[in-house]
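Protein entry
_____________
===
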Amino acid sequence: MKRKPIQGLLAAVMLVGTLWGGTPALASSVGTEVKINSGQPAVSKTGFDISNNYAVWIAEGEKAVTLYDLKKGTETKIGDNKSSKANPKVDGNYVVWTDSRHGNSDVYLYDISNDEEIRITSKSTAGSDVEIAGKYIVWTDNRHSGTDIYLYNINTEEETRVSTSGKASKPSVSPNYVAWEDRRNGNSDIFYYDIAEETEYEADVSSGQQVNPVIDDDVILYESPRGEQLYKFSIDSGRAKKVTSDSSAKTTPHLYEDTYIFASNNSLMLGDIDKSSTERIATRIYSKLQPRIYGDMVLFARTDSEGKVRLSLYDLDEEEEIEIGGIAGEPSSPDGSDRYVVYLSTSKRTSTVVLYDVEKGSSTAITDEDADPIRPLVSDRFAVWYDKSSKALVAYDIRKGKVKKVTDKSVKPSREYYELDGNNLLWVNEDRRNELVVTNLSTDEEEDITRLGKDPLSLDIYGDYITWVLEDNRDKATVYLYDRDINRETKIVSGVQVEKASIGDNFVVWSEYTSGRDASWDLFYYDIKRGKVNPVTRWNNGDQLDPQASRSMVLYYDNRLSPKPKDFYYELYDIDKDSFSKHYWKDEAKMDEPRIGGNRVVWIDERDGDPYVYTMAFASAREDDDDDDDGDDDNGGIDHGDYVEYPFLAALEGDVFFDILDQFDYDQIEFVVFPGTKKEKSVSFLAALDDADLLFDLLDEADMSDIFVRAYK
């Protein structure tokens, strides 16, 4: 078969890959601190909502709707993650939003109880401003000339056109009425519709602009320019009455029973519908998004120092702000790689492993409700933790979004001694005289290294090398280096007092106690290529402790420059350049539990009063840093036994795809989405070559990260 038609197909596919995949902008640059605030989710500017049991929003950089269970503290993604969505709203067991998956803006309904998604409008419509109350959904629709309000009964599946002016917008609904803003008279007025009577009525058609109505029961609250005030219209009495009286601007009101909220000069205000006084409950809010109230809870938005819109939740009963999100809680045990940060988020209910994507600036809870995780680690491909409930090591495949147990009941993994590098997990099996084991998380292959006979003082893995420290006798220990490539064990130093050893690029570093006149803990490193031990620094005063290595950098604890010996601080030293890093955290940083991994340092910091996870990259990210020893062949494919799979975007780079074509018969190659899941679908290469639309239809069903090229052996 000639390459020309193949090249034509690939050219079109690569164009789609470029448009869809793109190159995400890094959320942080080298040397810049990033504060990870997962307890206040970063959201898109498309709206959010809260009800008795749930809150909904669309996370920044995502397209699925986040459904948050307020009682359980868990998140669920609903709707697909390919099409743009807006205006998520929730009431009872239903969520609604507008969705562009069919080209227009359709209204979608999600039934929480039955886990069912329903398309409400047809592709001939363009819905917006969707709202829900009980069994009723309302939205603005432009299927006819102009815009009108439509009402949908979930129980009967009946749709009703509420307005006919062609100038209606911003509907709000209660179990008995629909209210909206209408410009039929030249200016904005408030109208309402009696659902039982199927009749439209005027509410406030006085001079000036009456805008942004919200309705609860039979009371409509809205903005009026008459002194920049809020007014209420009682359907029962048929009268409008001014609710507020001060001179400040008032926007985006929302109402629940007798309690209402609104924005005023970037402050969030609270009031009683029957009283003129109001009170400020929050400041520095993002007033362009309507705050929402249900019961004692108020959901609103703020912008952070990076310009991200973040959700906040205010408890009216406790009179305080509380965290929201399935990953809200106190952070601890952080770890990092080039692209990801993981940490534990602990609340009163549970501990959750949170995965933060540095490129997207988004956070995801990756453990189940019944998990009891400790000490999470991360590479650019996997996250790993020890689960106390199952007494097993557990791994999360970041690419596939799957959780799997690494160990079963036949072994007893140490809950303290394990390390992760790329796809390789180094761990200790306590059932077999503390045997060191390396598990390839991509292939599940295990490699037995050696039996230690007792717990190590520390261990580490980096590329083809493993290091560990074993205590010989009291205060004396040996640092070992194991070369996995040639299966050779080397004693680097013996009979010394050693605290810890770690591996970086071509070196092992440790802290060693040197006795004598200037007794202290000093850093030494072993040059793997030269087989030589060297001091890390040229001074011997003060104590340098707890070294951690990644790339050419060493992070350690130091008191050399402190006025008091007990006052320690952290340093970052470049072994290759024999100098301190030029990139550092800010002076006001209060570092706790620091870890170094990939190209970054992560830590817990309480400089703002409460603990947050911070991270800083000290170097640029490496390309495909964690793809070594993961079962890939020379072209980056992952061997699954009967077949090899290649990430779609990686296969399009250079001549990789042509190399695959040279290696396999054409009828053995296919394009696959969501491999290994219930949603897996495929199109053969020959079918795609004959009809490219088959391939494009398949690609339309998934993100680029979920698409693979599969070649059968």
